[in-house]
Amino acid sequence: MIRSRPFRRPALTVAILAATTLVAGCAGKNDRPKADLAASKVTTIGVNSYLWRASLETLSFMPLLQTDSNGGVIVTDWYANPKNPGERVKVTVSILDQDLRADALRVAASRQVAQAGGWADAPVQAATVQKLEDIILTKARDLRRSAVKG
Q1: pTM attached to this predicted model
Q2: CATH number of this structure's domain 37-149, picked from the four choices 2.30.30, 2.60.40, 3.30.530, 3.40.109
Q3: What is the tens place of the pLDDT at every residue in 5-26?
Q4: CB count, 10 Å around CB of 98?
C-alpha cells in the first residue's frame, strides 16, 4: 500500500507564489502610453502637478499664507477686493490625489464682512466655491493638454 506524504515545504511554496505575483504585477508597467504618464505621476511633488499649478495660478491675486506641495494644501491670507473693501475672503485648496480628477480637488472659503469695530463671519455662497473649483480644474486640464501635445 502506497501512502501519500503531505507536502512539507509550505514556506517555499509561499515564497514562489509571492515572487510570481510580484513579477506579474510589474509586467507592462513601462508599456503605458505617454498620455497616461502625463495624467498623474510625472511629478516630484506629492500631488498632481497640474492641479497644483492651476491652483496657484488661480489664487495668484491673493496673498498666500501657507503652501505645502507634498500635502497638497494651499491656504491664502484674507483678501479684500479694492472695489468692495467691506468684505474679505480666505481660501483653502486641498489636492487629495496624484491623478487629475475632479474629486481630487477640494476648495473651502471663508468670508467676513466689516462691522463696527471688526469683522464678522458671513456665509459663502456654494456657487462661489464651485466656480473656483471649475476654474482650477479647467486650467489643470489645459496645462495637461499642453504638456501632452508638447
Answers
A1: 0.70
A2: 3.30.530
A3: 444 444 444 444 444 444 444 4
A4: 19
